[in-house]
Design brief:
By secondary structure, the chain is of the alpha/beta class. α3 runs parallel beside α6 and α4 crosses α6. The N terminus is likely disordered. About 30% of the residues lie in helices and about 25% in strands.
């Protein structure tokens, strides 16, 4: 079930109305996703406005900004999860490996198998640990050794040593941090190229959060990761690139800055980025 990012109580951010976001590219990095002029609506409400940016391959890109600035909407547009909410629509292009995922004839199920998703609240299925990881493999017609694939995914998610003797146990009996790592194992079991993470640590304690952060750094050696986070310290710790969203007068989220994380946090180009990072707005 995809939770809807609703335009409820607006955050008072003193920014001017903008007509378009900046065109931002991460230097010479090879892109895996290119967003061009993206707009997304919930009914008549535009949640994100004219966003253009690129996501570099095998790097961690963080999306930060005030509550309600469209961060979760943006990330869900990257694998067509946004359209699962009734009344939504998208305009613009999202190129994945050069192909517009919103073009006619593109299978959204195939898109989501190659661009996986981990949600804010751990959402394991009420099945065994083994079946949680095997689920996506089964529905995708996996023909290899299922047990080997499950073990490989659990090892990649740094969970194998903790659950190897209880694979038949109901996944809901795991701790919150373990459940989230199980959801990561489930997402990477089908070998996606990109893993989207929508505030994956917001429901976890500090120790579990650090484990997930360490895991993200390890996974970025094989996968491209895009993470939405409300925690600026987390973005600074784990990401290679950071995108900063704000809201215009109509509460539509737009991009104000995108670049290497170190530069965004230590020498921001836009005064709104500096104001947000220093806590003066947001």
């Amino acid at each position: 079930m995809v939770s809807q990012e609703r335009p409820s109580t607006p955050v008072q951010v003193p920014v001017p109305r903008v007509e378009a976001g900046p065109v931002c590219t991460p230097g010479e990095e090879e892109p895996v996703i290119e967003v061009r002029g993206l707009n997304a609506w919930y009914g008549g409400f535009r949640a994100v406005k004219d966003i253009t940016l690129t996501v570099p391959r095998r790097r961690i890109t963080a999306i930060i900004g005030p509550s309600g600035s469209g961060k979760s909407t943006l990330i869900r547009c990257l694998n067509r999860m946004h359209e699962l909410v009734p009344g939504t629509r998208v305009e613009g292009e999202v190129l994945f490996e050069g192909q517009d995922i919103y073009a006619p004839g593109v299978d959204p199920v195939e898109v989501r198998s190659r661009i996986g998703m981990v949600f804010q609240k751990p959402n394991p299925f009420p099945k065994s640990i083994f079946e949680n990881v095997a689920f996506g493999l089964r529905i995708n017609g996996y023909r290899g050794d299922l047990r080997e694939a499950v073990e490989r995914s659990l090892r990649a998610a740094a969970l194998w040593d903790e659950v190897k003797d209880k694979l038949g146990q109901n996944a809901l009996r795991l701790s919150g941090g373990q459940q989230q790592r199980l959801c990561i194992a489930r997402a990477i079991a089908v070998e996606p190229e990109v893993v989207l993470m929508d505030e994956p640590c917001s429901a976890l304690d500090p120790i579990a959060t650090l484990k997930i952060e360490d895991l993200m750094r390890e996974l970025s050696q094989r996968y491209t990761i895009v993470i939405v986070t409300h925690n600026m310290q987390q973005a600074a710790r784990v990401s290679d690139y950071t995108a900063v969203l704000m809201m215009d007068d109509d509460r539509a989220g737009y991009l104000v800055e995108f670049g290497p994380t170190r530069e965004v946090f230590t020498n921001p180009r836009d005064h709104r980025t500096e104001a947000y990072i220093t806590g003066r707005i947001g």
